[in-house]
């Protein structure tokens, strides 16, 4: 019975990620020292080609969001809009932060996959330029 339950959990996790899975993965990346928190640090990581993914809070200032999107597009860095400043700060061990850059390719790919699994059910109007919005957390 326990084995079937474990199999069902794995199947569900492959079908549909939950926002908390994103936060746990981001927290793990932060504890591993594989993220840069904040707009200035993230921008520097993107310009230096170190960032594998940039996550922007949905409640970030419009000017901050536009600058981050533009910088990521120019550098070819995947970008996702997800969660709130408080959630990003909480799960990375800081106060509220609008932007986090993920430096590790493995963490970046996994976080992108998890976020996309959450965003996909939100509807067919997903943006296709690596800028996505979701309900967050």
Structure description:
It is a single chain. This protein has 137 residues and is of the alpha+beta class. It has a single domain, classed as 60s Ribosomal Protein L30, Chain: A. The chain has six helices and four strands; from the N terminus they run ααβαβαβαβα. The protein is globular. The termini are far apart.
Mean pLDDT figure: 85
Shape: globular
Q: Into which percent range does the helicity of residues fall?
A: 40-55%
Rounded radius of gyration (Å):
15 Å
The run of helices and strands is: HHEHEHEHEH
Beta-strand portion reads 5-15%
The CA-CA distance between the termini, in Å, is: 31 Å
Give the CATH level 1 class. Answer: Alpha Beta
- Here the CATH topology equals 60s Ribosomal Protein L30, Chain: A
Topology record:
Elements (H helix, E strand, L loop, with lengths): L1 H14 L3 H13 L3 E3 L1 H9 L5 E4 L5 H14 L3 E3 L3 H8 L6 E4 L2 H15 L18
Parallel strand pairs: 2-3
Antiparallel strand pairs: 1-4, 2-4
Helix pairs in contact: 2-5, 2-6, 3-4
Label this structure with key terms:
137 residues; 60s Ribosomal Protein L30, Chain: A; 53% helix; alpha+beta
